[in-house]
Amino acid sequence: GKNVEYVNQDDTNRRWFNEFRSKSASNPIPLETVDAARYSALVIPDSPGALRDLHKDKDLKQILAYFVKEKKAICAVGLGVAGLFSTVHDGIWSFEDYSLTCTCLYELARNPEFPSLPVIPEDFVKDNGGKYS
């Protein structure tokens, strides 16, 4: 629900940023206000924050449950796959038996924040019945 902070702006890209900010897609809304029935697809982009914020988010869990039930398209990219982890209920993950890929353990281990990460996507997928590649 926070606005994106853009860094490294200069004269050549400032016009693009200003035009983008005027579009509705540049203004995020909180997940608790999302009506999943209004959307035909869900994209969870690559984001380091997904490992900390989305992997246990109750609002995202409800949105994903609706998308799974209605068989709507879901695309999670890179670390955004951690958003799918919120769908564990009574020890069963909604995406078990799915084939997924995301940032690998080797790549995450090179990150200085690795020791403090609350979840490792590759391990979570494997430990919860998904197929990781």
Automatic annotation (TrEMBL):
Subcellular localization: Early endosome; Secreted
Top-level taxon of the source organism: Eukaryota
Alphabetical UniProt keywords: Endosome, Secreted, Signal
Primary role: Component of the FERRY complex (Five-subunit Endosomal Rab5 and RNA/ribosome intermediary). The FERRY complex directly interacts with mRNAs and RAB5A, and functions as a RAB5A effector involved in the localization and the distribution of specific mRNAs most likely by mediating their endosomal transport. The complex recruits mRNAs and ribosomes to early endosomes through direct mRNA-interaction.
Protein name per its UniProtKB record: Glutamine amidotransferase-like class 1 domain-containing protein 1
Organism of derivation: Mya arenaria
